Amino acid sequence: MVLNINGRDQHLKVDVRTSLLDALREHLHLTGAKKGCDQGQCGACTVHVDGKRELSCLTLAVAVQGRKINTIEGLAGADGGLHPMQQAFIDHDGFQCGYCTPGQIMSAVACVHEGNARTDADIREYMSGNLCRCGAYPNIVAAIKQARSSMERG
Amino acid sequence: MADDASWFGVPTPRIDGVAKVTGAARYGSDEPIAHPAFAYLVTSSISRGRIADMKLERAREVPGVLDILHHGNVGSQAKPPPSMTGDKATNTLETDRIEHDGQIIAVVVAETFEAAREAAHKVQVDYAVELPSASFDSSGVTAEPKKQKENPKVGDAASALAGAEVKIDAHYSTPTQHHNPIELFTTTCIWDGPKLTIYEPSQFMWGLKAAVAKQLDMDPANIRTVSRFVGGAFGSRGGTTSRTAWIAIAARRLGRPVKLVATRSQGFTIATYRAETRQHVQLAASRDGKLVALSHEGWEVTSRPSGYNVGGVDTTARMYACPNIATAVNVVHADRNTPGFMRAPAETPYMFALESGMDELAYALNMDPVALRLVNDTQTDPVSGLPFSSRSLTACYDQAAERFGWSRRDHKPGSMRDGDWLIGWGCATACYPTNIAPCAIRLSVTPDGRATVQMAAHEIGTGAYTTIGLTVARALGLKLNDVVVMLGDSDLPPVPVAGGSNNTASTLNVAAKACEQVRDRLAAAAVADHESVFTGADPKGLRLSDGMLVGDNRHEPLAKALGRVTGGALEIHAENVPEGLPPTAIGSLYKGTATMLRGGSRKDVTTYAFGAHFVEVRVNSRTREIRTPRVVSAFAAGNIVNPTTAHSQFMGGVIWGLSSALHEATEVDPKTARYVNNNLADYMVPVNADVPEIDIIMVPEKDERVNPLGVKGIGEIGIVGMNAAVANAVFHATGKRVRDLPIRIEKLI
Ligand code: FES
Ligand code: FES
């Protein structure tokens, strides 16, 4: 099958039951998206499919052929410069262990694009599909607010 | 060094931040492995009995299946991992006995994850089922006093209780909880001849290596464990669990790397957890609030073979000045997996009981709950009579109470209201012993003004890369960017288990010591050199600063100073054994045992960090919905190395405390002794929308006796007492005292 990931077509031969998450992690060595539950409960595997956030563990790889898939590895600029959301997570210490972080950041970027990051209450609500067991939540909210301003400007 | 004000305390972003936000940080199962086979665990669906028969035919027929490990073919090839208490552990494939729910009974290995999973579900097991005992009230459990060291005892608590003016007598209970770090329990094993490499999230690189060596009867020198980043641990990855050895055996049988990513549900039974407790607290005081007696007894569930317990009375007995103290701890054996440490193992459950009891006593005395704590604050450990190395509890209460606005509180329960919402304000004490253990490090400094630190330390979210980097940068007078920090690999010098909040104190004190050795070498050579600007100077007066060796109004570039002692890099291997531990403790560390100098067992001082929590709860008068709109917590924990990551540690701890109060509990089916809510949708942990405003105050504290750098561990203190603060606030809001966690709506109806 062919998957378009971070702007490039990737050819792979996998079992039809392979989730998008396992295709990324085990077959394409894109291990940024994380497996935290494999059953749609934690958000660690969040990626963008055609610009929308999706749980890659609940998505079969075959089902997203021909769609544009973006992962955390493709978020920074081609020059390696961090996306404002990535920088904001560093500035506000929006993580501890960092395991939920790629999923949080992919969700956060989508959350801003959706227009669901206008208020603190909105951010908290619309980011509640991404668990952070370390408890970085208040810092994640602060990071999203910072990135929202620069994303809107930029 | 500890008195250099500029040494610590500058908020610094994590040096591993870029790796974490770009997906480049490599966790155990992220390591690129050539051509791995995939393992999937088969776990028992009963809690007690025997495997009568295991039919593997249908599983073997699944295309891509390579091997199935079970008691019959590999059972004798590994011993169970050494248990944390030194007594017997529960078994997995070593026997056909089933000792708990979800016990590993087979490992299926296949070409793909999908095939391994399918085949695992096709393994048919016939059990000879026996009636299991689930928990405290089940028939068939056996109870006994704990076997480890004696419980604290002072004076005659029974007589003091009998004659007291004011007293409370209450029973509390706390539930089973699971750590549920977001990273799953994974293991990848690769053999290269006799050498085994294990990629696995671990809080103790050298401990894991030593344990697996024992299990497989190998020379530890042939084992390497790697864990550069750990996706949350909270205690769950401190001890070695069974899975690792079986994956190693699977890889050896196949002659190919084998990778296991256990499922979320399996994580509930193949690793450890916080066992449920029951506690009995009796407190007595004179009318002015001074404690005259404290009695605290606990009961904790454990597995059949293990005597594991957390015994939190060691801490509660030391909390307040009290002349008569009696304590006891009992274990109750049931058909359960063996519990283990989970964030503030002893303090989270036991301080819930004590701090709830203190609130009850405040009401019995008609006294402000803060005033009661302050009246009983002390600088002397009431158990040993030793001084606390530092104890800033009153300062924490004062600052947090002020910020919270506590003086506006009306003491009467049910007296504060906002429309439909009943408002309650509660407080409780936080504390955690300051522990430290032996530690080793390799440090090299090169003429280009860069340093490399290597140690098998653990980045579990605490910010270890950054705190270690900061310490070395400051001590060597370098920029943080010029310090390379390498952690998480047992080929590097050993670091004790990242548990008991010891790792910051342990790693930074050895790092400072190594830097001091660098300075010593450079200074001694500089003053001895006749052509140096430092000829004849006092070597003690020289220090490293801004890439220079400086002192006595003179300076020279680091490269020049370095050139005197070596043509290349100066490499130091340093070890530190904290004063108070036997010198042999370092040898034990190399053998995978971390001997800790504990806050309550030192001969010179007692070392603890303290804090105070204040929380507002709102309980809806109609629906009984519980909200916690704001928290103010103050902590005094010696020198704060990096306020940025320290703030995150404290805040994360507070969130865990709120969770312990209101959300978290693993339900154990009383009939089958199985965990019911073994997934992240049914096991309640806070989501972003659950978390309120959290105001963290770091109260400055200088402690010159605790350890040379004056640092206290902060990974666990944040959670301690928070559950009681919430329960106390719920009482203030509603007049209802909830003594059984978690506090959910149904308990307020
Ligand atoms: S791994 Fe996909 S939601 Fe948890
Ligand atoms: S940073 Fe550890 S789970 Fe979010």
List its traits.
heterodimer, A: 154 residues, alpha+beta, Ubiquitin-like (UB roll), DNA polymerase, domain 1, 2 domains, 5 strands, 12% strand, B: 749 residues, Aldehyde Oxidoreductase, domain 4, 3 domains, seven-stranded mixed β-sheet, six-stranded mixed β-sheet, 18 helices, 28 strands, 24% strand, binds FE2/S2 (inorganic) cluster
Written overview of the protein:
The complex is a heterodimer of chains A (154) and B (749). Chain A has 154 residues and is an alpha+beta fold. Chain A has two domains: 2-74, Ubiquitin-like (UB roll) (Roll); 84-153, [2Fe-2S]-binding domain (DNA polymerase, domain 1), CATH 1.10.150. Helix content of chain A is 35%, strand content 12%. The model of chain A has no long low-confidence stretch (mean pLDDT 97). Chain B is an alpha+beta fold and 749 residues long. Chain B is globular and about 80 Å long. Chain B starts with 16 loop residues before the first helix and ends in a 15-residue tail after the last helix. The chains are: A alpha+beta (154), B alpha+beta (749). The interface between A and B is large, with 60 and 65 residues. Residues 35-38, 40-45, 55, 57 of chain A line the site of one FE2/S2 (inorganic) cluster (FES).
Strand order of the largest sheet of chain B: 3-5-1-13-10-11-12
- What is the overall shape of chain B? globular
The biggest chain-chain interface is: A-B, 60 and 65 residues
Q: Show unreliable segments of chain A.
A: none
Determine the CATH topology of the largest domain in chain A: Ubiquitin-like (UB roll)
- What do the pLDDT scores of chain B average to? 96
**Head-to-tail CA distance between termini of chain A:** 36 Å
Gyration radius of chain A, in Å: 15 Å
Q: Which architecture name of the largest domain in chain B does CATH use?
A: 2-Layer Sandwich
Number of helices of chain A: 5
* Major pleated sheet of chain A: 5 strands, mixed
Number of domains of chain B: 3
Shape assignment of chain A = globular
Radius of gyration of chain B: 27 Å
CATH class of the largest domain in chain B: Alpha Beta
How much helix, percentage-wise, in residues of chain A?
25-40%
Report, as a whole number of angstroms, the end-to-end distance of chain B: 57 Å
The CATH topology of the largest domain in chain B is Aldehyde Oxidoreductase, domain 4
Bound molecules: FE2/S2 (inorganic) cluster
